[in-house]
Structure formats: C-alpha cells, structure tokens
Amino acid sequence: MIGVLRPPADASLLATGADGPAVTLEYGRGAERWAYRVEGRSVRAVEWTDGDGGRMTVEVRSVDAEQRPTSVRYRDWPAFVELVIDVTELEVVEGHPDDTWNPAL
What we know:
The chain is an all-beta fold. The protein is 0% helix and 52% strand. It has no helices and 7 strands. It has strands at residues 12-19, 22-29, 32-39, 42-49, 55-63, 69-76, 81-86. The protein has a 7-stranded antiparallel β-sheet, with no helix packed on it.
C-alpha cells in the first residue's frame, strides 16, 4: 500500500499485538473498529467493522522481492463484493518533486 497509516479521527487505540514480524493495531470509535496488520514498514491488512454487521477488508496477498504488492484483495463482506488486483507489469517512473506533497496534512 502506498501512503501513511493514520488512525481514524477521534478513535482510541484499543489493543496492540505482535505475532513474529507482524504487529497489529486496533482502534475504536463507538461501535466502529479498525484493525491494521503491519509487517516491517508495510501495511499488509486493514479491517473495518461497524458493530452492526458491516465489514470491509483490504489484504496484501503477495509481494515481490522488493516488498511491493503484487496481489491485493478488497472485500465488502455484507455486500458479497470482492475486488482482486494482480500486478502483471510494473513501469518504474520518476517520482514527483519533494515540494509536491505536504506530509503535514
């Protein structure tokens, strides 16, 4: 995944755990829950539940030698919807200049 892991606004850290190289973080706000599984510097899975049967997940199913995702699965469990993205080709391009992004946002 590309980006920065930010806890949901007004959510509290409810639990942490470790299983070998994986670290889990669970946040909550009311009945909503967000669970993140992180390995090294990479987010490998995210789960959201709303306490009323709503559940969505994103899971990195495989990575290449440089730890870039090669297969990712998104699921909306109650809607019975699944989207699988399999990377079959990678084109390396020049990145944006550093002043393009503002990480303070």
